[in-house]
Write a structure and sequence with these properties.
Blueprint lengths: L6 H26 L4 H34 L6 H22 L9 H25 L1
Helix pairs in contact: 2-3
């Protein structure tokens, strides 16, 4: 049997090789992009801090709009567009993020480590109580 080498055979082989290289590169980059526990915690804290700024801004905008309406001052275009309910919506959304405990910003492995430390502490306290009884 003779195997003829045509351009279509080369292109099919090139496509298969290209797909294989692309999938390997994607898998390698995917493994590099997994956040460490410290990075995960830092992202959670940054999100919380940005929400704190949005919370303050929405509060100030709400009070400013209310005051301008009360004193019959001119309302800015942004205030007219957002309205009192728009600012209230932003305020409530930012407040929800701020209510998240700092511990919830940590990654799963960090939470497990904290639970282990607390359990050991409680075991030591219980041992001391048992000795004193």
């Amino acid at each position: 049997y003779t195997y003829t080498c045509t351009d279509s055979n080369h292109s099919v082989g090139g496509v298969i090789c290209g797909v294989l290289i692309t999938s390997l590169t994607t898998a390698a980059l995917g493994n590099l992009m997994i956040f460490t526990t410290a990075e995960h915690t830092a992202r959670g804290i940054l999100k919380r801090e940005s929400s704190r700024m949005a919370y303050t801004t929405a509060g100030v905008n709400t009070i400013s709009l209310w005051w301008r309406r009360l004193k019959k001052h001119e309302i800015t275009r942004n205030q007219r567009k957002m309205g009192l309910y728009g600012y209230r919506r932003e305020f409530v959304a930012a407040e929800r993020v701020l209510k998240v405990e700092l511990e919830e910003c940590a990654s799963t492995s960090t939470k497990i480590e904290q639970i282990v430390v607390r359990t050991r502490h409680m075991q030591a306290v219980m041992d001391k109580i048992g000795i004193n009884l």
